[in-house]
Amino acid sequence: MSQTKPLQQASPRPGNACLMHGMAERLGADVERAAASGEISSQELTDMVTRCGNCTQHDACIIWLLDHQGAQDMPPDYCLNTQELHYVRAVQGQISAN
């Protein structure tokens, strides 16, 4: 991933990490493993949680996660981490194929 300036969030909201990890799980992107293996940096993982926290669609996200149990190909249109989650899934898919 590209090096970007860390995102700023005024105050942490409970549940941001849970929503982001839930979305990652649905998409088959193991973000914790990606950070541990260097596929993404720990700052990028933090930025993903912050980006989720800055989203205005938390209620819609919770409903989407409840309505979409199991593996999914695409997150909802409003997901602010779509690009990052697809990147992690693609990189992990390449590693698994080798």
Brief descriptors of the model:
mainly alpha
Describe, in plain words, how this protein is organized in 3D.
- InterPro entries: DUF6455.
- This protein is mostly helical and 98 residues long.
- The chain has one domain.
- It contains five helices and no strands.
- Helix 1 packs parallel to helix 4.
- The protein is globular and about 35 Å long.
Query: What is the H/E string?
Result: HHHHH
Strand content: under 5%
* Number of continuous helical runs: 5
The class by helix and strand makeup works out as mainly alpha
Total beta-strand segments: 0
Q: Oligomeric state of the chains?
A: single chain
Sequence-ordered SSE layout with sheet pairings:
Layout: H1 16-27, H2 31-37, H3 42-54, H4 58-67, H5 82-97
Helix pairs in contact: 1-3, 1-4
What's this entry about, in short?
The chain has 98 residues and is mainly alpha-helical. Helix content is 59%, strand content 0%. It has one domain (22-97).
